[in-house]
Amino acid sequence: MEAKTALNPRSTIWELRNIQGAFAQFSVSFNFYILGSSSSGNCALLSTPDANILIDAGFSARRIKRSLDMLNVEMASIDAVFLTHEHCDHCAGVAGLSRMENLLFFANRDTARAVQSTCTKTNPSWRIFDTGISFSFQGITVETFSIPHDAADPVGYTFTLADGATLSWVTDLGHVPRLVRERIKHTDYLVLESNYDVDMLACSARPLSLKQRIKGRHGHLSNDLALELLLTLESTRLKQVFLAHLSNECNTPALVTDAMATARAARPQCGFTVIAPDSTDPVVFTP
Predict the structure, then answer these.
(1) pTM for this entry
(2) Are 45 and 52 contacting, i.e. CB atoms less than 8 angstroms apart?
């Protein structure tokens, strides 16, 4: 029988239950910052008048603090971290961040268990949810949904703010099933993986097994697959797309920009931003 890592019993663990109903509609501002996104690390900050939340923590706590300092955001002001899955480019900073008092970590049980096994000297304060439920956190409705990736129980997120604006985070998926399309078709702001260029991957020195994993149905989205989604997504609300999680070795911002020319023409009302994989400067977005 395969051994399973138990969640540290000294951690604070709360179960989150599904919620129904809508939030009252009123005007609210938000800022969105991508601190970095590539195959080497992923982390973003969603800031509202009531909360500062990180989406993934794929850099060291020191690197995340340095990025926040560039934005004049205090590390102590971060309320929570929402994890998509347990791969190190999404959770490398959890152990260091968990030393912060009152910082909450949201994940499903399988992801929390996997990440907890790497936190040998710290005890993250977990908030456990079942994949597929929605719940509220400090004025934000958080919708979780399953994505196809080779991790324990990977998820995407859609965050709905108090004024009804929505932001979806969809990276690390080998294909786009109907469920994912349904969960993001009403989103206003979309972070979407555009991980690799097919020709660059084929010509790379990576082992054949790794190439097959990346191209597999539980691997990563190519530029072509990301384009196909944007061209076929049934959405009239989409205002801004961030092309993220680019491979450092098998993609370039120029290739992604060229690949998305058809999508830009098809969605003239939508902005497109490509996140350079080697950039250390946060990408700042204010609607």
Answers:
(1) 0.90
(2) yes
